[in-house]
From TrEMBL:
Part of the 30S ribosomal subunit. This is Small ribosomal subunit protein uS17. It comes from Hasllibacter halocynthiae. One of the primary rRNA binding proteins, it binds specifically to the 5'-end of 16S ribosomal RNA. InterPro entries: NA-bd_OB-fold, Ribosomal_uS17, Ribosomal_uS17_bact/chlr.
Amino acid sequence: MPKRILQGRVTSDKNDQTVTVLVERRYAHPLLKKTVRTSKKYRAHDPENSFKTGDSVRIEECAPVSKSKRWKVVQAEA
């Protein structure tokens, strides 16, 4: 099964080797047909502490790194 890749924005880089990424998705409401925006935060592994707040990044599923981290940062978006 392929690993999921999500795109989001770094909202926090205060922890060592960890960034918090806000991923927003849009979908049409099944009954009202209105576009709905939902967001979710993921904690991702950043071993070099290279990403800062406000950066646009891609994260990929991985094996659990800690209790809350199941994603790793793959690359920064332009």
